[in-house]
Amino acid sequence: MLLGAHQSIEGGFDQALLRGRETGCTSLQIFVKSSSQWRARPLTSGETEAFQNTCRASGIVFTVAHSSYLINLGARDQALWRRSIEACAEELRRCDALGIPGLILHPGVHKGAGEEEGLKRIAWGLDQVLEETRNLRVQIILEATAGQGTVLGYRFEHLARLFELVQRNKRLGLCLDTCHLFAAGYDLRTEEGYERTMESFDRIVGLHHLKVLHLNDSKKPLGSRVDRHEHIGKGFLGLQAFRFIMQDDRLKGLPMILETPKEPDPVKNDRKNLATLRRLAKKS
Fold it and tell me: Residue 146 pLDDT more than 80?
């Protein structure tokens, strides 16, 4: 199983891999720059070499990046929209330099323009990013969201519409986050609800587009549209939802990444959540 967790890049990109190995990860997610700043200093050849060498030695089979939270390809403000395009393209280049095959991206926020106009704006931005990085193989992996405020991507129909609108969609993939799905109103807690959700996703979007799963319980109830992650089995989703996922043959081989609370002991908390998932994967 490609099970892992998001890890800090404090001290260097290679240190994230070492943290992942310490917690028992076989997959990993990192930021390729500060998630709360636009600018980043250029990568050095020493950093990229250290990351790639450590990756080969660490036992981490799959690494993915998560984009900065500042990026909004649905922005109505032209300056912010253009800055978001440039920032997204730069993060794809950093992924390429590090040898990371995918960048997970929240689609965007329409800020009152309306969902259809927002989706068109996001698609236009995605096409520009993909054109600017057409020489790269790194995928943009759009993440389904909780739908807080005017955030787009909380319905499967939004994701399907983006695939329709983006001309260069061959470099697009999708990430499903269990907390986001639940907050958006998709009930995964019963076998019937889980199957209905997966069948709906396959019918509307297509399981073949799914590249990564984020496994997080939810601090908020079904349909809250609030994105607050909780430890596995400790939130409103509960253990059964994760048992369905871990035993779903359709999802075998997909990287599954925790974004659960870290403090006060990141290693202990990650190990505990990973152990819970591995236990749930065992069929009785």
Answer: yes
Q: What is the CATH number for 102? A: 3.20.20.150
Please check the confidence at residue 68 and state whether its pLDDT lies above 90: yes
Q: Report the number of distinct structural domains present in the chain.
A: 1
pTM: 0.97
Strands (E), the chain: 3-6, 27-30, 62-66, 102-105, 108-109, 139-143, 151-152, 172-177, 210-215, 217-218, 229-230, 256-258
Contact by Cβ (8 Å): 106, 126:
no
* Owning domain of residue 238: 3-281
Report which of 80, 81, 79, 97 is spatially closest to residue 42, judged by C-alpha positions: 97
Helix boundaries (H) for 34-150: 45-58, 78-98, 115-132
C-alpha separations of 46 from 4, 43, 51, 57 in Å:
25, 8, 9, 16
